[in-house]
Amino acid sequence: GGTGLLWSIVWFLFAFDSPERHPRISAEEREFILKSLQAERQANHGTSIPWRHVWTCMPLWAINVAMFCSGWGFYVLLTSLPTYMSTVLHYEMQQNGLLSALPYLAGWVFTVAGGMAADALRIRGLLSITAIRKVATTLGLAVPSLCLVASGFVGCNHLLAVSFLTLSVAFGAFTTAGCGINQLDIAPQYAGVLLGISNTFNNLPGFLAPTLTGYLTEHDTLKEWHMVFFISAAINMFGALFYLVFGSGKQQSWAREGGLEEGA
């Protein structure tokens, strides 16, 4: 709540309705922004969305599946990690709060590092866009899958359990540089629409995963939690394999300018 209030104050101080009303930008910057917006409006004028091609595009479905699987592992830990640490690992409340936050701090670091690494590989021409997206997505799904499986074999070893769960969230952040940005590669003209679709798939586990977790952990036993982690691991691995087969970093023919005169 306090962070949200602070952000609101900053937003009211620095955000304005339009470039013309912003008092702290130079005339050159204002002109550049207005010209860019004008060019964007002209490019999008009269453009209809080719829905038939969108819904039958396998590279997009690869993104959707990978985003769903990534979201499953993320939401399982986001909603259930404090409970697991309290009821199974028996951490005190203060320790629980600090250790539950640790995976997401690591995830933030890996998100930035993954983006920088992907950009470096692309700029230097070391890997194709398709290869970069597949490597990042595989790291972001397969490695967390292995970590979740490993966490099921450490019993109540606190250090190893927390370490594997932290690594699971951290490596999961690599999907940001993979399937998380892949819409811009396959259909830049419709990237906003595609991102909306993919983000819907990504957030479906937000209510599905906690519901299943609650059903499986009725007694909060170690065996029940292992089942939760193993199911998440299987879902993650399926997403990695599906994306490896059907994912692509190439712009689709239907998304090229002039490729379709009318939306299908």
From TrEMBL:
GO molecular function, one term: symporter activity
Subcellular location: Membrane
Secretion signal, residue range per the UniProt entry: 1-21
GO biological process: monoatomic anion transport
Coiled-coil parts of chain: none
Superkingdom of the organism of origin: Eukaryota
Gene3D superfamilies: MFS general substrate transporter like domains
Family annotation (SUPFAM superfamilies): MFS general substrate transporter (SSF103473)
Bilayer disposition of the protein: Multi-pass membrane protein
Annotated TM spans: 60-81, 101-123, 135-154, 160-181, 193-213, 225-246
Domain Major facilitator superfamily (MFS) profile, first and last residues per copy: 59-264
Keywords for the protein's UniProt record, in alphabetical order: Membrane, Signal, Symport, Transmembrane, Transmembrane helix, Transport
InterPro entries: MFS, MFS_dom, MFS_Na/Anion_cotransporter, MFS_trans_sf
Protein known as: Major facilitator superfamily (MFS) profile domain-containing protein
Biological source species: Petromyzon marinus (Sea lamprey)
